[in-house]
């Protein structure tokens, strides 16, 4: 009997019936920005960043105007704003921020679908001072075209999750024609970034 007991102790007992994993929750759709008479769009063009449950997304906003089924419904003769929406709870609730109040991300150039907001003037472009740490845990970067057909474009970056932005630096592609769509590679001592 002693040998039988030893064998039972040495072999694991069969597992109890395992519970089936719960089905994933259906997606939850939430409104990030909505104001009557306003248009909002192009979050993919402005950028989206996340740090755990904190999410930041950029977008354009302007006055709504029905321009027909083939055009974006933004009034071309009214101001266009570049705004940020931030969630700190994984996307359940959102607060809108206006970075132009700190002099950053000011709409400019021929890429606007509206006109620049009155009283806002983009500060002069500057050369990048270098030393950008793309690996910073709170890093965010956005690149903005001023024209769809010719460069240069400009970029801004943040190391405090988009609370403040540095830049208005010229982004010149490696394309000899100055196309804003040409791939470019930037290297620093710590990392290499490739932009398309």
Structure explained in plain terms:
It is a single chain. With 196 residues, the protein is mainly β. The chain has one domain. The protein is built from two helices and ten strands, in the order H-E-H-E-E-E-E-E-E-E-E-E. It has helices at residues 2-10, 43-46; strands at 38-41, 48-51, 54-63, 81-87, 95-97, 140-144, 153-158, 166-171, 184-187, 192-195. The strands form three sheets. Strands 1, 2, 3, 4 and 5 form a five-stranded antiparallel β-sheet that branches. Strands 6-7-8 form a three-stranded antiparallel β-sheet, with no helix packed on it. A hairpin with a 2-residue loop joins strand 2 (48-51) and strand 3. It is globular and about 70 Å long. The N and C termini lie far apart (73 Å).
Layout of secondary structure:
Layout lengths: L1 H9 L27 E4 L1 H4 L1 E4 L2 E10 L17 E7 L7 E3 L42 E5 L8 E6 L7 E6 L12 E4 L4 E4 L1
Antiparallel strand pairs: 1-3, 2-3, 3-4, 4-5, 6-7, 7-8, 9-10
Question: What is the arithmetic mean of pLDDT?
Answer: 81
- How many β-strands, per DSSP? 10
Task: Output the structural class.
Answer: mainly beta
Count of structural domains = 1
Instruction: List low-confidence stretches.
Output: 1-11
Report the end-to-end length measured between terminal Cα atoms: 73 Å
Based on CA inertia axes, which overall geometry fits?
Answer: globular
Helix share bin: under 10%
Brief description of this entry?
The protein has 2 helices and 10 strands. By secondary structure, it is mainly β.
Keywords:
196 residues, mainly beta, 5-stranded antiparallel beta sheet, 3-stranded antiparallel beta sheet, 2 helices, 10 strands
């Amino acid at each position: 009997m002693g040998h039988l007991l030893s064998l039972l102790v040495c072999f694991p007992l069969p597992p109890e019936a395992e519970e089936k994993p719960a089905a994933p929750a259906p997606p939850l759709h939430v409104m990030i920005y909505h104001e009557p008479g306003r248009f909002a769009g192009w979050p993919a063009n402005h950028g989206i960043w996340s740090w755990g449950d904190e999410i930041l997304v950029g977008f354009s906003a302007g006055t709504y105007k029905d321009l027909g089924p083939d055009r974006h419904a933004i009034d071309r003769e009214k101001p266009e704003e570049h705004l940020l929406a931030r969630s700190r709870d994984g996307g359940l609730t959102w607060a809108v921020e206006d970075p132009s109040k700190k002099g950053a991300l000011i709409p400019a150039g021929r890429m606007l679908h509206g006109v620049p907001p009155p009283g806002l003037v983009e500060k002069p472009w500057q050369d990048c001072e270098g030393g950008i740490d793309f690996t910073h845990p709170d890093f965010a970067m956005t690149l903005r075209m001023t024209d769809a057909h010719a460069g240069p474009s400009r970029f801004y970056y943040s190391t405090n999750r988009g609370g403040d932005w540095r830049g208005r630096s010229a982004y010149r592609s490696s394309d000899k024609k100055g196309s804003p769509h040409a791939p470019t590679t930037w290297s620093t001592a710590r990392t290499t970034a490739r932009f398309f």
